[in-house]
Amino acid sequence: MTLNFTLPPIQDNEDGSWGPSTSTLPSQFQGIPYAPFSKSDKINRIADWHDPALDPSAGGARAGQRGANYSVSANRRPGREAYGASESNAFGYVHDEDEKSFSLVDSGRAAGQKRAMPIRGRGGRLNVARGGARGRGTGFAPRGGFSSRGGRGGGRGGYSDWNKPQRTRDSSVTISPEWQMLEEIDFARLYKLNLNVENPEDLESAGTLQSYDKAFDRINTRNEKPLEIIGRVRYNVSTSDDPIIGQLAEKKSAHIFATDSILSVLMCAPRSVNSWDIVLDRRGDQLFLDKREGGPFDFITVNENAQDPPADSDDPTNINSAASLSLEATYINQNFSSQVIADGGKAYTPSPNPFYSPEDETEPLASCLYRYRKFDLGVGEDEEFDIVVRTEVDAYAGKKDNFVTVKALNEFDPRAQGGSVKALDWRKNLDTQKGAIVAGEMKNNSAKLARWAVQSILAGAEQMKMGYISRANPRDAQRHVIVGVQSYKPTDFARQMNVSITNGWGIVRTIADLALKQPEGKYVLVKDPNNPMIRLYSVPDNAFDAEGATVDGHDDM
User: Fold this and answer.
1) CA 542, 543, 544: angle at the middle one, nearest 5?
2) Alpha-carbon gap, residue 548 to 178, rounded angstroms
3) Residue 466's CB: how many other CB atoms inside 10 A?
4) What does each C-alpha distance from 497 to 271, 441, 494 come to in angstroms?
5) 442, 455 Cβ separation under 8 angstroms
6) What is the C-alpha end-to-end distance of the chain, expressed in Å?
7) Which of 204, 272, 181 is nearest to 525 (CA)?
8) Distance between CA atoms of residues 389 and 397, nearest Å
9) Which of 193, 197, 301, 416 is deepest in the core (most CB within 10 A)?
10) What gap in Å lies between CA 270 and CA 88, rounded to an integer?
11) What is the residue-averaged pLDDT of the chain?
């Protein structure tokens, strides 16, 4: 028997370009672009007939019919779209009378992508009591600086983030329509800034400093100590309300004035996740960096940089919400810094505390020394560009000039959101696996620990005492135990966390230049709550007056 073979017609592209000739292309395919291919594919894989329905790993209905042909595109990198994405949309058009399947633009997210991302007024004292806060000024307004709310949207990440809704955080301050945005700076630009600053000049010292009790260095998991409630008056006064800074400003001692807590947030801005805001008040040729009443600077965040940080909750009994944990951490730090002071030690008082009034206060002062230090931010030798910073130290060790700052990390319920099911129990493993615990804290609290290191360096502290405080019962946020205390040199701790002081000074100088180029008035620097960037706004002079001021849409009470 003779078999006849007929050669099928060959499409000859006369113009010499790649692909079928437009003159011979069937009319139903006219106007459809040629499907691109992945750059990672081999040259012999230009034509790819891969159908997701036939993918055996996806359990396609016809997977068994393809067999070995599945390997044609199996080598493409997982989670990576083909070069010139959206070809699936272009070839996925199916005619329908209401044309619901028609799509001009692919607005969806590619797989694997992620979104770019006390307690009182500016002049009041800070005294956090168990279960609440009190002092002068406005009431507790936790929402904003450290709050976060669940929301939908965003892309998918790795296995742990698969099909998980992205969180939408609230801004620390309500952006009014009257505000004018002047500058927008993303964190990538901030990382590139650097400025070398020499050792500062000490201008003034005020307050009362007491000695650190070395017995706390011997605390461990086998010799834990309960955290005590100690009534001591501690202040967190904003820059413009500081009488000593007011005197230095009248003397034209510097161009910029700030406190270490405000300045550390700005210097560590690229590590921030939660929103914050700094009020910039330009008066003549001077600039004052202030905190806002009801803002986030009076509280300490918890696991801000964690992969799954604590979420806010409207349930006031939820002790593991972002607001509750922040209040708990602030309460722990205030009491721990007072508890480590040695009884009967000699007090060092170069000059009285500028914020304390014996006639109005009934409780004793906490150990705290305010050091007013001037740093030269000039770029050239002839340029005078100084900043005065009010820094704080909590105690002294041995000699009165051996300054110590005291901070505390707190452990809560690891099973709650914001914790980690793989986290080590501090009360069992801190002595034997302290390195792993510290590494976890540096990861989950990168912004907080970096700020503490910068504050200690600005204050000229020789040591930074870090306490490890755990709940006596994970379900009880009222009782705590001290399970360990560790000493660090601030510069070594900053180096271990890859904190660059020169980068921080570069950020400060850049923001100061931007503000001083503007006319006299009030401005606000706001960290975007959901993206890695900061924005500078021009605001009315009465934007944050006590009467009528709003925070996150709620009237200050």
Assistant:
1) 95
2) 15
3) 20
4) 11, 11, 5
5) no
6) 101
7) 181
8) 23
9) 301
10) 38
11) 77
Structure tokens at 543: 């934007």
* Residues facing residue 373 across a β-bridge: 202, 389
Q: Please, what is the Cα angle at 535 between 237 and 240, to 5 degrees?
A: 20
pLDDT at 442 over 50: yes
Q: Which amino acid, 428?
A: K
What is the Cα 520 distance to its own chain's centre?
30
Q: Where are the alpha helices (DSSP H) in 208-294?
A: 243-250, 260-267
Q: Are strands 533-539 and 463-473 parallel, antiparallel or unpaired?
A: unpaired
* Phi then psi dihedrals of residue 217, to 5 deg: -70, -15
What single-letter amino acid sits at 170? D
Q: What is the pLDDT of residues 144-202, one digit of tens each?
A: 333 433 333 333 334 444 445 567 888 999 999 999 999 999 999 999 999 999 999 99
Q: Please report, as a single letter, which amino acid is at residue 75.
A: N
**Alpha-carbon distance 385 to 375, whole Å?**
9
Inter-axis angle of helices 260-267 and 501-516, nearest 10: 100
Specify the pLDDT at position 408: 96
Distance CA 415, CA 421 (A): 6
CB 377 within 8 Å of CB 246? no
**Which residues contact residue 542 at a Cβ distance below 8 angstroms, ignoring those fewer than 6 apart?**
none
Contact 159, 521 (CB under 8 A): no
pLDDT in tens, 136-152: 333 333 333 334 333 33
Name the maximum alpha-carbon separation found in the chain. 121
Q: Are 209 and 349 in contact (CB under 8 A)?
A: yes
- Rg of the chain taking only CA atoms, in angstroms: 30
The residue ranges of DSSP E strands in 394-548, in sequence order, are 395-396, 403-411, 463-473, 476-488, 521-527, 533-539
- Residue 241: Cβ within 10 Å count: 16
